[in-house]
Specification:
Two copies of one chain form a homodimer. Chain A is an alpha+beta fold and 147 residues long. The first copy, chain A, folds into two domains: 3-80, Winged helix-like DNA-binding domain superfamily/Winged helix DNA-binding domain (Arc Repressor Mutant, subunit A), CATH 1.10.10; 84-147, Dna Ligase, domain 1 (2-Layer Sandwich). The first copy, chain A, has helices at residues 3-11, 17-28, 35-43, 50-62, 102-114; strands at 66-70, 76-80, 86-90, 96-99, 117-130. Chain A has a three-stranded mixed beta sheet with strand order 4-3-5. Chain A has a two-stranded antiparallel sheet with strand order 1-2. Chain A starts with a helix and ends in a 17-residue tail after the last strand. The A-B interface holds A 70, 74, 76, 88, 90-91, 97, 99, 101, 103-104, 107-108, 111-113, 115-131 and B 70, 74, 76, 88, 90-91, 97, 99, 101, 103-104, 107-108, 111-113, 115-131. The structure holds a DNA duplex (25 and 25 nucleotides).
Chain lengths: 147, 147
DNA sequence: GTATATGCAAAAGCTTTGCGGGTTC
DNA sequence: GAACCCGCAAAGCTTTTGCATATAC
């Protein structure tokens, strides 16, 4: 039983075949797949309706098993829920680098506490380009970019 | 001539009537209106097609005159571009608090530099709830919430 | 056995786009 | 005057939903 399946059981989420399949895809993915990415990947081995995929992702996000993120292209993307981490997006390639930093987490918490709030969750998305003194090559046309 | 109109001229963006109207609405708004909010507000004084509103917002965002942000309800929202600042979202009311903090900005820059990148832009969205030892009252049903 | 999830297909947003006519600089 | 922008309406996507059937526990 995988970590995410475990989490589901703890939350009282029934483990059905389509749910297991979605979870497996997300556990095997290192990128941040969109709904149709996930649906496409699941469909390679199992049959699953697109609508069901949406319902599963919504449910599992609500239960805290998954995390939804939206980058510059406005499509929902998913990843397994876990410790706080942040996304650095390469402006030229669209690559997503995951960043963990305790100082940042601490600073964010301190900041909102100063405003009288307690932090429940946060999303940090940094758009950057490679710092390079030599000639810079554009690796991908601007249109497809995740900004 | 307003600040944003100035910016447009600098970028070579023609100042038409619909564009001026959209800019004025955004200059007068303290919240983060969605496209249809903006369209509705503009329409109170001028006629403007919804499609045109989308085109204008896309263009002005691409030119760096406006900034697009997407919160938990997955609708595009807009604000005038300006110095880096962050959004604290009240989990219970959906209220959006703007936060500016130089330490946070500095830390983010330092972080990405450590990874070999230069920061171009960033979006920070913190979801929080009021830190309150007395009984907490839920001020808004969960469904409409901006998370 | 019961509550809950799925499949299917339709519908409901939100956003983009093609085209002819109008406007800005 | 040339380039660019707008209104309109249609089309494209993504996401949600109703209903009958199937499944997990």
């Amino acid at each position: 039983m995988s970590r995410l399946e475990d989490l589901c059981q703890q939350r009282g989420v029934k483990l059905t075949r389509p749910r297991r399949a979605v979870l497996q895809v997300l556990e095997e993915s290192n990128d941040h797949p969109t709904v149709s990415d996930i649906h496409r990947r699941v469909t390679q081995k199992h049959h699953i309706a697109l609508g069901t995929t949406y319902r599963i992702l919504n449910r599992l996000t609500a239960e805290g098993v998954l995390r939804r993120c939206v980058f510059g292209d406005d499509k929902a993307r998913y990843e397994p829920a876990g410790s706080p981490h942040y996304h650095l997006i390469d402006h030229d390639t669209g690559a997503i680098v995951e960043v963990s930093d305790d100082r940042l987490t601490a600073l964010l918490k301190q900041l909102v506490r100063g405003l009288g709030y307690r932090m429940i969750a946060c999303h940090v998305e940094i758009i950057g380009e490679i710092e390079d003194n030599s000639v810079r090559i554009r690796r991908r046309p601007r249109g497809n970019m995740v900004t």
